[in-house]
Amino acid sequence: MKPNDWSNSPAKRMFDCAVAALALIILSPLMLVVALAVKLSSKGPILFRQKRMGRNGWAFEIYKFRSMHDCGSGPSVTKAGDARLTSIGGFLRKTKLDELPQLVNVMKGDMSLVGPRPKVPHHQTYTLLARPGVTGAATLAFRDEEDFLHHVPDHALDACQINLLMPLKREIDDEYLAHATFLTDLNVLLRTVWKSHKSADKERVCDLQISLVSLSQALGQSVAPAPVPGHHVSPNIPLRNMAAQ
After folding, report:
1. Which pLDDT tens digit goes with each residue over 3-52?
2. What is residue 229's predicted lDDT score, i.e. its pLDDT?
3. pLDDT-flagged residues of the chain (< 70)
4. Number of domains within the chain
5. Relative orientation angle of helices 10-41 and 182-193, to the nearest 10 degrees
């Protein structure tokens, strides 16, 4: 399933730049406060920089506010309760404030406001046909990913990301990009800002829970999936078109 005309259009790029520039101006005081908090709360640089994969296999350097003491060690996937998190790191990641510097990536043309999240090279198992996004359909569906991965052992996190999460996220993002419009992008941005969830998001996560249980059994461990309020795990949950929501 390929992205539609909007997903790679000059109009979308103009929209991205206009919103990112305005957001950088409006949010600059907040970003200054976050930068100061990062600096005072732990040793190390304010910004975390990492190689990520962009459109058509193009690599770029992503910017985030640092949320870990030692970002270069341990698994590249983070889960809730990670010992590497700084005293404010968990809060920054939960509120997504650590993602604000990616507005600069949008201005540079590395990223879009809405699209698939950019992965580290060894997790990007397919070529992105559109710019990766600061937020996106799969990002919303898996907003609480770190909580769901809490019981997965560290040595299995990369395998879980590549074999379980990536196929589910790709399906959601591909569906979205194939039907994306200005209005659906705006809807995703508003849902991101207001932290809005829909039932379909949680239903997709139930599929992930089943897979996590299967992974844990294969590893010879007993792992209970993180609960999704109001939902029971069912093996026959349909995937729905996120772009239509």
Report:
1. 999 999 999 999 999 999 999 999 999 999 999 999 999 999 999 999 99
2. 38
3. 71-81, 145-157, 196-245
4. 1
5. 20
Amino acid, res. 121: P
Residue 16 lies in a domain: yes
3-class DSSP assignment, residue 81: coil
Distance (Å, whole) CA 139 – CA 141: 6
d(CA 164, CA 191): 25
**Looking at residue 228, what is its pLDDT?**
41
- Answer whether residue 1 is part of any domain: no
Phi, then psi, of 223 in degrees rounded to 5: -125, 125
C-alpha separations of 92 from 7, 35, 97, 106, 179 in Å: 29, 11, 5, 20, 32
Q: Does 179 fall in a domain? A: yes
Domain extent, residue 122, equals 6-244
User: How far is it, in rounded angstroms, from Cα 203 to Cα 187?
Assistant: 20
Say if CB 12 and CB 6 are below 8 A apart. Answer: yes
